[in-house]
Write a structure and sequence with these properties.
heterodimer; A: mainly alpha; MetI-like fold; 2 domains; 14 helices; B: 9 helices; 20 strands
């Protein structure tokens, strides 16, 4: 053990604000947080349980609510894996290779974030709607996309497109291609390199992206609202279901459904913090590495 | 296995990284590619490994007479060691070293017992037997590079390529590790090519040194040859400190102020600019003007902490000079800061401008022994 005394320098008055300024700033931040985040969150649960626990659970026995939950899970189950695969493929291509149009691809990946979700929904109506580009052909072959589950899945896919890619690209770029080059010179094939070297290196970033992607996929309202047609029990996802109930003045049921989304959000935050903690833990401080080699004989 | 590189050119956009480079590395030798950053040495190494491709239409890379141009990196059987180790962070030391064996197709893969045995023998070789279960992040830089070397050796490469292998290590570990690498090479004799920008490292470790500059090879030779018989001003400058004197050719001799050298200047015309390079240890300090060819100067700084005594001097026309001498000589001469002394050139390298004389031997080298 080293016995170097680490003396903390005394707090320099020039670098610290007066006490009342500190408390004012902290207080302002906390009251803002409470007013705009905590109270609404609490309100969701308070309203949901306003008529008791029985009424709360009764809200989920409604077949329309169950269908909405099922559809939401289905959409997420399709959209998240697809965007995970796409995100990884795009990141791999962008971070490890140079090709023409690379910057265009990076910009395009961000497009869904830049476009209003309502527009995203409208794009699909214009493409696949009855009067859209492919509408007549689809109608001829009896394929329904708009006002049906495929349309909802497509709209969700579009909106959640960037999540995984945006998390993974910077990490892969920072890591460079040396690990992969090392694997290749050791005789590994492309797939072996990907599964045994590349993927483990970015797994926490992928998971982080998947969590955010999932939260958005389940919570998306705008784009899905445009393409869904709001057919109760058929094309209503959970957020759309909340809106319908609310418009019908069925507040308890509306807030009960909303509380599910709120729980999802809280679980997402908890998972996200866990993943962030793991990511930091797996990247140890290089200064703490002991030297134990001793002289080479 | 020998390596032959023939007429390789590599350009990145408009930057020429390698300009028609040819090189041959005989079987079993340890060769250093030495040059400043941007000289193309790493590009050459990566082209040999197959991690980079030479410009289409340029020459070939041959391993033991066989062209490997069409072989991808994974089939070339080269061991590659990276400057920043490139160890797999999520694998233990054992798993890292075993990687090359475990990715083989099933019928060529050794049994797990054989792999374990192989890894342990390599761990013994790198003297890290007790660290098999550690992760790379738990190792020091020197240990990591040894693991990287063991990982490269595990697949029994025909050729070992090392890219600035000690570049990221601190001075002491670096020195230890390069001496260890030399001994290791004497044991296993795998044809090795390593890239470095550290002339001391290249001269100390390598059998042969390839000095590169601006995408070209300046000189290939043993450490003694490149140090004592530099083929160009660049090589001379790059391999250690030099004092530079400007002069000109007069009557077939090179004249530097009061010093006249019987340099064989290759019949250069009078008036051509000449440059004389003298290494700090080839300058001698005299307290009396013994010979005519001595330069009066004043000592401005003496640094005697170290294996040799380093002196800074200034001539009367304000040119700074650096001189190195043994402690013994230093004591005998009884030198002090501010002393007026005389500097004699013991050995020098003279280069005469070739630009204005096409066809002439520009690298006229004058060697004068005092």
């Amino acid at each position: 053990m080293r016995t170097v005394a680490t003396t903390k320098p005394a707090r320099r008055s020039t670098l610290s604000e007066p006490v009342w300024v500190r408390w004012l700033l902290i207080g302002a931040a906390l009251s803002f947080l409470g007013l705009f985040l905590l109270i609404p969150l609490a309100a969701v649960f308070v309203e949901a349980f306003r008529k008791g626990v029985g009424a709360y659970f009764a809200a989920f026995r409604d077949p329309a609510a169950l269908a909405a939950i099922k559809l939401t899970l289905l959409v997420a189950a399709v959209a998240v894996p697809l965007n995970c695969v796409f995100g990884l493929a795009a990141s791999w291509a962008i971070a490890k290779f140079n090709f023409i149009g690379k910057h265009l691809l990076i910009t395009l990946i961000d497009l869904p974030f830049a476009v209003s979700p309502v527009i995203s929904g409208l794009i699909y109506i214009l493409l696949y709607g009855l009067n859209g580009w492919f509408g007549p052909w689809l109608a001829e072959h009896d394929i329904q996309i708009i006002f049906a589950v495929p349309g909802i899945v497509l709209a969700t896919l579009f909106v959640t497109f960037p999540f995984v890619a945006r998390e993974v690209i910077p990490l892969m770029q920072a890591q460079g291609a040396e690990d992969e080059e090392a694997a290749v010179t050791l005789g590994a094939s492309g797939w072996q390199t990907f599964f045994r070297v590349t993927l483990p290196n970015v797994k926490w970033a992928v998971l982080y992206g998947v969590i955010l992607c999932n939260a958005r996929a389940m919570g998306e309202f705008g784009a899905v609202s445009v393409v869904s047609g709001h057919i109760r029990g058929k094309t209503n996802t959970l957020p759309l279901h909340v809106e319908i109930l609310y418009n019908e003045y069925n507040f308890v049921a509306a807030f009960a459904a909303a509380s599910l989304l709120a729980i999802l959000a809280l679980a997402t935050l908890a998972l996200k913090s866990f993943v962030e903690w793991r990511t930091h833990r797996t990247a140890p401080n290089p200064l703490e590495i002991p030297y134990e080699g001793g002289p080479l004989a | 296995m020998s390596i032959e590189v023939n007429n390789i050119t590599k350009t990145f956009g408009r930057f020429v990284a390698l300009d028609n480079v040819s090189l041959s590395v005989p079987t079993g030798q340890l060769v250093a590619l030495l040059g400043p950053s941007g000289s193309g040495k790493t590009s050459l190494l990566r082209i040999i490994a197959g991690l980079e491709t030479a410009d289409p239409g340029s020459g070939s890379v041959r391993f033991h007479e066989k062209d490997v141009a069409r072989k991808p990196a994974r089939r070339r059987k080269v061991g590659f060691v990276f400057q920043h180790y490139a160890l797999f962070k999520h694998m233990t030391v054992f798993q890292n070293i075993a990687f090359g064996l475990t990715v083989r197709p099933r019928r060529k893969r050794p049994s797990s017992d054989a792999i374990r045995e192989k890894v342990h023998s390599l761990l013994k070789l790198i003297q890290l037997e007790n660290l098999a279960d550690r992760y790379p992040s738990q190792l020091s830089g020197g240990q990591r590079q040894r693991v990287a070397l063991a990982r490269a050796l595990a697949v029994e490469p025909k050729v070992l390529l090392l890219d600035e292998p000690f570049g990221a290590l601190d001075a002491r570990v670096r020195q230890e590790l390069r001496q260890w690498l030399r001994r290791l090479h004497d044991d296993i004799h795998v044809t090795s090519l390593f890239v470095t920008h550290d002339q001391e490292e290249a001269l100390e470790v390598a059998d042969r040194v390839v000095v590169m500059n601006a995408g070209r090879i300046e000189q290939v030779g043993t450490p003694e040859e490149v140090f004592h018989k530099p083929a160009s001003e660049f090589v001379l400058n790059f391999l250690g400190n030099v004092n530079l004197f400007h002069g000109r050719v007069e009557g077939g001799r090179a004249v530097f102020g009061s010093m006249v050298l019987d340099a064989s200047t290759g019949g250069q015309a009078d008036g051509k600019a000449a440059r004389m390079f003298v290494r700090p240890h080839d300058l001698e300090i005299l307290t009396q003007p013994g010979e005519a060819a001595a330069l009066p100067a004043r000592i401005t700084r003496i640094q005697s902490a170290g294996p040799v005594v380093k002196l800074d001097l200034r001539t009367h026309d304000a040119q700074p000079l650096h001189v190195e001498m043994s402690h013994e000589t230093y004591r005998q001469r009884n030198l002090k800061n501010g002393d007026e002394v005389f500097v004699r050139v013991k050995e020098s390298h003279v280069f005469v401008d070739e630009s204005a004389s096409p066809g002439a031997n520009g690298d006229a080298r004058g060697r004068k022994r005092g």
